[in-house]
Design goal:
- About 20% of the residues are buried.
- It is built from six helices and five strands; from the N terminus they run H-E-H-E-H-E-H-H-H-E-E.
- By secondary structure, it is of the alpha/beta class.
- The protein has a three-stranded parallel β-sheet with strand order 2-1-3, with helices on both faces. A two-stranded antiparallel sheet has the order 4-5.
- It has a single domain, classed as D-Maltodextrin-Binding Protein, domain 2.
- Helices cover about 40% and strands about 15% of the residues.
Amino acid sequence: MRTILTCAALALALGSAPAFAQSGEITIWSWNVAASSLKATIEGFNKQFPDIKVTVQDLGNQPTYDKSIAGCAAGGEGLPDIVTIENGEAENYWSQFPDCFVDLHTLGYTAEDQAKFPDFKRTELEVEDKAYAMPWDSGPVAMYYRR
């Protein structure tokens, strides 16, 4: 059931609805702007999936990492369905805990979906032919010229 619910969340993030109705709960660990952004999408998500309760827990940056690492070290015990991880930290998870996260390809994340994101944002989120995460932003970037 957890895999199916995560599939539903993935489908929504990619802009396509799955061909099945589901119910249950999705828990997400995140922090700050990421957590508030995720919370802002719940209403739209629930329009497509009214019987899925989404809980975004704003734990703070370091507590999210600490709890995630502890959960992975415990074989996945106590982890949420979805966790926010910054690109720079992602490789630490994949190298230390290769079995802690699911390959998103098994949930319907296709090469077409991957192409929606810039390569530089996907590099640290994919290992060989597995995609352990998907980007949700490209980071704020600006160039200012002062005359």
